[in-house]
Design brief:
The protein is of the alpha/beta class. The protein has helices at 5-11, 103-117, 136-144, 146-151, 172-190, 205-214, 247-253, 278-295, 308-317, and strands at 20-21, 31-33, 48-60, 67-73, 123-131, 198-201, 227-228, 258-259, 274-275, 301-306, 329-334. Helix content is 30%, strand content 17%.
């Protein structure tokens, strides 16, 4: 997949003055902006992966010295590029169309050729995007229904039977979903899929555990530890399930993961009455793309474990558009 920063800026309004509707709740009126993609189907009990090939290209603006970058997705390699309806949570070969025995070798040869032949300022990367497995907040939303969840229950920490906030854990089903991804990784590793050159993850527990489980014992070693990025978190605000824990807790919980610099001890982004918009999530995903393309210049295979809201923001940022994403699923992309 490919994304254009200029396209993002022209298509979305990122100002805090976005339209909203007020609603009552534990903390008073909630500024809840209208959703850009109201028809996207919700999933609460399956896991999904999406693959995409993405390109970043440099362009010159109208003014002298005005140089920017745009992101685009490169279609034709993965089933997700053409699917109008949801694919299986984890499609065969992670969605790669080529079913030959040397399919992954051929894909990476193609990416190397694209990068070798590209003009200065243009580069290609292969992204494997994984959504976390089922969390207790997913169970609660299914229990009460989306409307009641959005209007009331999402602002609570629990209901006396289920605890979902802040930062809920995976359910037993969610843990099994992560193991299902792990088995898919093992199968494709046997077909020549190498370890990701870099792995990134949301700081929320459900994503951290999914990331930890899905690649456990698949490869004998990895080039780098998983790096936790603040900007990979779910659409945040209002819903207590999207409030993260402290840096100290995360560091103790996943001591074998690395945490980005300037990661605050306490959650500075979550707000009890303001919910992040889809456009703001796409803008945040664009910052993750900027970081990866600017710092991981030699790395072409990137794994990101995150959330449905973030992944659809990522897809929007590269011009792909949102994709119905079940819990524990994967999307692959080439920008």
């Amino acid at each position: 997949m490919c994304i254009s920063q200029s396209r993002l800026e022209s298509n979305f309004n990122f100002k805090q003055t976005s339209s909203y509707r007020a609603r009552g709740g534990q903390h008073g009126p909630v500024r809840h902006r209208y959703r850009l993609f109201p028809n996207i189907r919700k999933f609460t009990d399956t896991v999904l992966s999406i693959s995409t090939l993405s390109r970043r290209a440099r362009f010159r603006g109208a003014m002298p010295g005005d140089i920017g970058h745009k992101y685009e997705f490169v279609p034709g390699h993965f089933a997700h590029d053409e699917a109008d309806e949801p694919l299986p949570a984890i499609p065969p070969r992670f969605g790669l169309k080529n079913a030959s025995e040397d399919r992954w070798e051929k894909l990476f040869e193609h990416i190397r050729a694209l990068n070798d032949e590209s003009p200065k300022g243009t580069s290609y990367k292969f992204f494997l995007l994984s959504r976390h497995g089922q969390g207790y907040h997913n169970v609660a939303e299914e229990k009460y229904g989306t409307q009641a969840w959005d209007d009331y229950w999402s602002m609570m920490d629990g209901d006396g039977e289920i605890k979902w906030g802040p930062d809920p854990q995976l359910t037993p089903i969610g843990i099994e979903q992560a193991h299902t991804i792990q088995r898919a990784w093992m199968e494709e590793a046997g077909a020549g899929l190498s370890p990701p050159h870099k792995r990134y993850c949301s700081p929320l527990s459900r994503a951290l555990d999914t990331c930890d489980i899905m690649l456990n014992k698949v490869f004998s070693e990895h080039p780098h530890p998983v790096l936790i990025l603040e900007n990979c978190r779910e659409e945040n605000g209002v819903h207590t399930c999207d409030k993260r824990r402290t840096r100290s807790y995360i560091s103790d919980y996943k001591p074998h993961f690395a945490i980005e610099e300037r990661f605050e001890e306490y959650d500075q982004l979550w707000h009890p009455t303001i919910r992040e918009t889809k456009a703001e999530v796409a803008q945040r995903a664009g910052k993750v793309l900027d970081r990866i393309f600017e710092t991981d210049t030699e790395h072409t295979f990137i794994s990101i474990t995150a959330h449905g809201g973030f992944i659809n923001g990522f897809l929007t940022a590269i011009g792909r558009g949102p994709f119905p994403l079940p819990t524990g699923g994967k999307i692959f992309s080439l920008p």
